[in-house]
Design goal:
The structure is a homodimer. The first copy, chain A, is built from six helices and no strands. The first copy, chain A, is an all-alpha fold and about 130 residues long. Chain A has a domain of about 80 residues: 434 Repressor (Amino-terminal Domain). At the A-B interface, helix 1, helix 4, helix 5 and helix 6 of A face helix 1, helix 4, helix 5 and helix 6 of B. Chain A binds a DNA duplex (30 and 30 nucleotides) through helix 3.
Chain lengths: ~130, ~130
DNA sequence: GCGCCGCTCTGCCCTCAGCAGAAGGGCGCC
DNA sequence: GGCGCCCTTCTGCTGAGGGCAGAGCGGCGC
């Protein structure tokens, strides 16, 4: 069963030209990236509090139940695309806004967790500066 | 370290200082923001193709089944936090990278869909320019 | 004390995430 | 020309978990 057939990389079937350098660090043990739903939940809660609104208020605006919104904010349930959009909307935000905030937190968390933390991350796609 | 006048930034649990003007356009109708899972799927597929890799390859790296990865890329199934992280990782990206790309697509889509489209969106949190 | 308000915990049901198996479709090989 | 391989997508199935109604708990005004 061993690699008798060889790596045989040259399956030249495809010739799409510009290959991006496939990341070949298989598992260099990047410890823990925070779980997305936690970060999203945190953002939602922070925004809600910043607006001084209650779970009930936002939940109704988003057409979801109060306990469920609570669970989302605490990162205990996974928000589907529709629910997330509704919740964001209820806070007067777009998906893009929420994602911005989430990203900021991810970056912040990473820099504290691994101060020299660099993945392929920012460098490549980095410069997205969306202005008004 | 207790700046006693200022709302100490020391902890995340900051006192919510300024109430943000609650968004009071309740919900007239903002017609269609693209569904998150579609955008995410598109990003995953594009990245995979850019690396010239197959579903099988990436699926194995992410420890998920091939058909399921296909569904994710096509936006037919919702990706949980863990699965999304695994898929991103399998492509050599972090969550932040994926979110960046997703956000870019959202912005792009919006500008085509609603050329004058402005929500509370970009203005407020706009300037996240993450550099190296 | 008592009731209200805001949040969280407890089950419950039914959708859907996630997968094994097999069916298209394209290209190389004999 | 046919055969077979590879990548992808479709078809059911099962168990996990999304989403909710209802009750429980601490705080504050009366």
């Amino acid at each position: 069963m061993t690699t008798h057939t060889a790596p045989a990389p040259a399956d030249t079937r495809t010739r799409i030209v510009p290959l991006r350098p496939r990341p070949e660090a298989p598992r260099p043990e990047q410890p823990r990236e925070p779980l997305l739903r936690d970060v999203v939940g945190g953002v939602l809660r922070r925004e809600r509090l910043a607006q001084e609104r209650t779970l009930k208020d936002v939940a109704e605006a988003a057409r979801i139940s109060v306990p469920y919104l609570s669970e989302l904010e605490r990162g205990r349930k996974e928000a589907s695309s529709e629910v997330l959009a509704a919740a964001a909307r209820a806070l007067g935000l777009g998906l893009g806004d929420v994602l911005s905030l989430v990203q900021q937190e991810l970056v912040a968390a990473r820099s504290t967790t691994a101060p020299r933390g660099r993945t392929a991350t920012a460098g490549r796609y980095g410069g997205l500066c969306l202005a008004a």
